[in-house]
Write a structure and sequence with these properties.
Layout lengths: L2 H16 L6 H8 L3 H4 L6 H13 L7 H8 L3 H15 L2 H14 L3 H28 L8 H24 L10 H13 L3
């Protein structure tokens, strides 16, 4: 593992244990086993490390080209199922759980993080879904509607389920009840938009 990857791995652990403010560059360097000055060869500061980790957690579940989106969207409900399942994997990923909590807190305090969230997570997901819904509309798979609004409607429930999972886990409450909610959401949503 490269030093840069070690820094990210150990930083993620420290951030999830002590939060952003409770973690110092000195702590990170010590955990990695390097001098503090050596850490600056890889990252300019703690915020850059944090934003790099956040980018990986907030990335879109789909990293498709337009051509791949088109092929997948022509399968209608399968496209939505695949998107929701990728999202579900992120939501139930225990490695990212504590970081997701910290990111929710830091979103309110860090403008750069908010911009990154909007760019890397929100805008990319809405764009992918909008493209998919446009293709479905053009091919008469779903009723004609505003693809952007359809994207917001579909994505908002997924995000809310993920938030519920985080809140339940925070209080050590079982999330088993939510394990099928992603699939149920796809079924409900598809029934409401498909061409009858």
């Amino acid at each position: 593992m490269s030093t840069k990857l070690k820094i990210l791995k150990e930083s993620k652990t420290l951030f999830s244990q002590f939060g952003y403010k409770g973690t110092s560059v000195r702590n990170i360097a010590s955990k990695v086993g390097i001098r503090e000055s050596a850490l600056y060869n890889h990252f300019k500061n703690k915020e850059e490390i944090f934003l790099t980790i956040a980018k990986n957690i907030f990335t879109s579940p789909f990293s498709f080209s337009s051509n791949t989106i088109e092929k997948s969207a022509l399968k209608g409900k399968h496209f939505l199922k695949k998107f929701a399942m990728e999202y579900k994997l992120l939501a139930f990923d225990k490695d990212n759980e504590n970081m997701f909590r910290i990111l929710l807190i830091e979103l309110l305090q860090n403008k750069t993080l908010r911009e990154q969230f909007m760019s890397e997570f929100h805008n990319k997901n809405v764009k992918i879904l909008s493209e998919g819904f446009s293709i479905m509309i053009q091919n008469n798979l779903v009723r004609s509607s505003d693809p952007m609004i359809m994207s917001y409607e579909f994505l908002s429930t997924l995000f809310y389920i993920r938030l519920q999972i985080t809140l339940l886990r925070f209080d050590f409450i079982s999330t088993n009840i939510l394990s099928t909610q992603f699939e149920k959401h796809v079924d409900f949503f598809w029934e409401s938009i498909k061409v009858k």
